[in-house]
TrEMBL record:
Keywords of the record: Hydrolase
Protein name: N-acetylmuramoyl-l-alanine amidase
One of the protein's GO biological processes: peptidoglycan catabolic process
GO CC entries: outer membrane-bounded periplasmic space
Cross-referenced CDD domains: MurNAc-LAA
SMART domains: Ami_3 (SM00646)
Alphabetized SUPFAM superfamilies for the sequence: Zn-dependent exopeptidases (SSF53187)
Superkingdom of the organism of origin: Bacteria
Presence of the UniProt keyword Transport in the record: no
Amino acid sequence: MKIVVDPGHDGYTDPGKCAGGVRECDVVISIAKYLCKELYERGYETLLTRSGNVPGITPQVRVELANANRVDALVSIHTNVAVSEEVSGTTSYYPAGSPESRQLADAIQECLVAALGTTNCGIREKELSVLTAVRCPVVLISVGFLSNPAERALLTDSERQQQAARAMAEGVEKYRMRRKRHYFFNG
C-alpha cells in the first residue's frame, strides 16, 4: 500500500495556525516524519509532500502528487486554534460522498483519540481542494489545538508526536484490515 503523508502548509510563505510562539507547519512536519517512519516499518510505501519549509506546496501540488503516483490514501496532518484557550480536541475531516475516506477518517480518529487522550471532536465532512480532488481515500486530521496550553505542550513534545504518529499508523492499518475483510466477505 502506498500512502501520501502531507504535513499541512508549506512552512515558508504559509506557516498555518500559530499560538504561544508555535507554528503549525513545524509541529506537523515533525509528526509527518514520524508517521512515515511508522508506516515504513509496517511495510507501507510513503511519499512525503514536503520534508522542510518549501515555498509553493499548494493544495493543488499535493493533489497532483497523490494522483500522479496512484497512491492508496492521503493523510494530511494539521493543528487548529480557537479564540478560547479552553477549546480542545482532535477532529478528522473527509470529503462528502466518499465512504472509503469516511472509514479511513473513522479508523485514524479512533486510534488517535485513544492514544493521546484528547477530546473526540468526531469526524466531519469538509469540502477542501486537498480532500475533494484526490482520487483515493483521503483524510485531513486536526491533531489538537495550539491555542490550548495543554494540547500545545502535547503537540510540541517529541514523545507525544511519536505517539500521535504511531496511532495514525495504527489507524491506517485498521482501515486496511477493515477493507480487506470487506472485500473477502463481499468480493
